Amino acid sequence: KYVTTDRGYNPPLGLISIGTCINQRDGLKAEILDSQAEELNFKQILDEIKRRSPDVIGMAAGTFTFIDCLSLVKEIKMMDDSIKIVLGGPHANLFPVETIEHKPIDYVMVGEGEISFPDLLERMNNNKEKLKFQGIGKIKIVGSFDGGTISSDAGGLLLREVENKSRILKK
């Protein structure tokens, strides 16, 4: 009686929170496209991206949705290679090195993005992104854990610094 076959939608709370933090910064503007709630297919998503003409697209992917997300990212890059793609979410947190190995992804956001993502956008606006973030090739990993930072060193390892403690995570 109380359970139906219809399923509600899960709003992208993480992206909404990050978008709010971006919109609080001078010179930055975020818009959210909830393709699930709007029931958009890949073509409709691409049409909407083309209409909005963003400089940067932030996406969240779970491991079960990563392949679909990667397919969409490839289509976005074929449409406009200048759009920067930032991928976050559960998959990026669990498998950051494996995630950045996919060429169409420009940045991987690890940890909570409410501070890191707006900081990255400001650095991109000021062309200072390379000052703080090192990467494997042209692909960068940015993010934060409990006030620490994650960055990639020249050897392709991830360095996690939390409260002055370090741990190296190997590929």
Overview of the structural elements:
It is a single chain. By secondary structure, this protein is of the alpha/beta class. The protein contains seven helices and eight strands. It has helices at 13-23, 42-52, 66-79, 90-94, 96-100, 113-125, 129-132; strands spanning 56-60, 84-88, 107-111, 135-136, 139-145, 148-152, 158-162, 165-169. Strands 1, 2, 3, 4, 5, 6, 7 and 8 form an eight-stranded mixed sheet that branches. A hairpin with a 2-residue loop joins strand 4 and strand 5 (139-145). The longest helix has 14 residues, at 66-79. The radius of gyration is 17 Å and the shape is globular. The N and C termini lie far apart (50 Å).
Which secondary structure elements does this structure contain, and how are they paired or packed?
Elements: H1 13-23, H2 42-52, E1 56-60, H3 66-79, E2 84-88, H4 90-94, H5 96-100, E3 107-111, H6 113-125, H7 129-132, E4 135-136, E5 139-145, E6 148-152, E7 158-162, E8 165-169
Parallel strand pairs: 1-2, 2-3, 3-5
Antiparallel strand pairs: 4-5, 5-6, 6-7, 7-8
Helix pairs in contact: 1-6, 2-3
